[in-house]
Amino acid sequence: MTTPQNRERPIVLVIDFHHARGPEIEFCIADDGVDPTAGNDWSLLPFMALSDGAHASTEDFSYFTLCRTETSASPATSLFGISCSRQIDSSRLLYRPPDVTRSTVQKAVVVVTDNPTSLGQLREKLSVVTSAWFAQRDFSDFDILKKFREGLVINFLNETDRLTDSRLGLSLREMIHEYKYQTLVLFKSLLLQPKMLFFGSRCERLCLIQFSLISLIPGLINNMQDCADPAFDSYAQTVERPTSLKTSERSSLLAYMGLPLQIFGKGSMFGPYTPLQQLDLLADYGTKSYVVGSTNSLLLQQKDRYSDILINLDEDSVVISSPSLRTALTLSPADRRWIDFLTQIINETWDDAHPEQPKTHGYMGSEEFIRLQFEEYLLALLSSMKYHEELNSSNTRSRTQLQTFNIEGDPALEFNPEFLALWQTTSNYALFKSLTTDSLLFSIVEPRHPCAGGLTIDDIQRRLSQQVAELHLDDRVREGREALNKHLAIGQKKVSAAFNSFWSDIEAMREAQRKRNEEKALHSQQPSTTSAPGLPPSSAEPATSTSAGISGSTAPSWFANRKAPSVDMTQAQASVNAVGQKAGAYFSSWSSWASDKRKEWQQEKDNKKQQPSSAASSVPADASSTPSLSVNSPLPIVTELTTTTTTTTTTTDHPDRGRRQSMQHRREGSLGISRSQSRRKRWSSLLRRRESEDFGASYRAIGDDADPPFPKSPLSKSEIFFPASNDTSEPHNEANRAAPGGGPSINADLDTEDCDAKHPPVKIETESTPPREDASLEKRTSDETTPEIMNG
């Protein structure tokens, strides 16, 4: 450790980023006649001052370490630097040097000192000076920087107590609030001296968290003269073993307990910001451990090579690559209970507006409270470790002496036995052991974990509550509610806008319609002289109406692009006339059918009245044996005479079918006589055929082996039987006799109201009569199915 006479006075430098040569030292302000850049190897200083990514921010700070070579007056030691980098548009400069070819100018002001505890105060002063220097817009004027260096020298000479802690910017509250129980993991890993790599995109935050972690070891930040180079080991060679103890003085107690633990001794180094140009030093065989930081993501791709523990500040994660180190850094139940208690206090006193101090402005949760808790934890660890060594030693005298302290068991096991075994192999523990060989530290500090004891229900409940709190359910629900309300408001606005647009379109359409109506009325009131010459006044109206429609279509409306359909009035009138004719023909056919039906019913009543007299005169003697033919005899037979081949079929049609066909025949003029007259003619023709010889032969041709159904006497039989035969093998030329007068063949339709359902309809066709346009007539009934003899 250097004496006050050998201390280095503050040095101020200016680092410029040249577009061709890169970062370089532009100007240095030091003691008269001394050039520290020439006597020391500070070739990497420009790369440390201008960190990677500094151009992305308006103002950025970087912390780094430098080596001061050995001289005749002072040994080699470590120096600490802080830089403030800013940038300005080159167009704003009052004097633009010729080598400035880019649109922006980036420079950094650096202060180098041998006291890391003053970095907090230097940060605020350096920020103000750098901002004022850039505000001049003339980088050739260094008066502000020279006066700034003079003020730093005055403060340096008036500094009486170097051990005064000024930790501005090193917030332990923020670190514990972000990392929680992992803060204790990082603290214990620092004692194991692994290769710790911190990564983050913000250089200032990256450096400050490393200083915060180092400051948790009491007295270490004031004894870091060997941290800049792994080859330095002046502290271990110059430290003296304390011979006295003053319990009233904190510094005496810490020294007697072997503090500070020398984390950065031989083979170790500390670089808050380490550029890529120093990777060779990190990979050197003589470098066993280090704590460094980097903003370059290339190191993440080679994290297994350059780190045992990777702390990613952007993701708030701690990755331990070594399995043995991971086991040793596992927190015991007592460790977890202790750090949970500390985290709970900080969370209860957390203030988002001022995270560096508790919201109660009290001692609980403050920076000093946190440092005191870690100091108590470390002293308990050292005392328990010393008792653990004495307990496991082979000296019987020491065991007898230990019984007088009435200490139960081995309190060191509360700190994780794997951690203790690995810690005993480090260089800082070796130095601690050499400084406290004969000291009974457990007689000064109680060898007991601050939160000793096994895992309890309270520990589980505390951990569960912390994990639930880490989920931030209230914040998420609040954010979700706010997002939902925002979306609802936006949706309501959109719906309102849509309805407003809809109604505005409707109003525009109404307005356009109103204008069209007004134009039509205006054109209709104009005199007839406005019409075309040679045309009547009425001929001008369609043109006026068309023009009004065309002009109205230009109004902003939903139907603006639709054309009015063209209407052919001649075709429409023809369609209406055709429909009217069809409807008239339909109703006239029904009326004619009704009148014919009425006449038919009247004729049937007359026939029933004549039935008794005609039946008495026509009954023969052998009526019991031969069926007779009467007027009211149910004959479900229709005989139709045509020129085609005689066929016999059995069909049953819908009752209305005969009506429609009959009406069609009447409309076409196929029946020239009334229905009553045709009925009488058919009956007379049938009676004449029965008397003839040919009727039976014609029927036998139809029925093959069937007996003749009709005898020669038309009145001697009481029943006529026609067998239903569907097979017709030969034509019948003389089956019927032509109607009187040489007319067409007659269809015999008999009334079938009282007809028995067992007689199927039979249709008989002959070739004796010439063909006609309508070859068939139907026999109809009022309520039952009409049997029909169809052409086969």
Give an account of the 3D structure.
- The protein is elongated, with a radius of gyration of 62 Å.
- The longest helix is centred in the middle third of the chain and has 53 residues, at 473-525.
- A five-stranded antiparallel sheet has the order 2-1-5-4-3.
- By secondary structure, it is an alpha/beta fold.
- Among the domains are: 11-159; 172-240 and 250-471, DENN domain, C-terminal lobe (Rossmann fold), CATH 3.40.50; 474-514.
- The model is unreliable at 161-166, 528-560, 615-655 and 693-792 (pLDDT under 50).
- It has helices at 36-39, 45-49, 119-135, 143-157, 172-179, 182-192, 203-214, 234-238, 250-256, 279-282, 298-301, 303-306, 323-328, 333-348, 367-392, 396-402, 417-423, 427-435, 457-471, 473-525, 540-553, 569-618, 655-668, 675-691, 694-703; strands at 11-18, 22-29, 59-68, 77-89, 104-113, 195-199, 268-271, 289-294, 309-312, 317-320, 638-639, 651-652, 748-749, 763-764, 787-788.
- A hairpin with an 8-residue loop joins strand 3 (59-68) and strand 4.
- The protein has 25 helices and 15 strands.
- Residues 513-557, 597-792 are annotated as: Disordered.
- Residues 10-451 form the UDENN domain.
- Residues 537-557, 612-628, 642-652 have a biased composition (Low complexity).
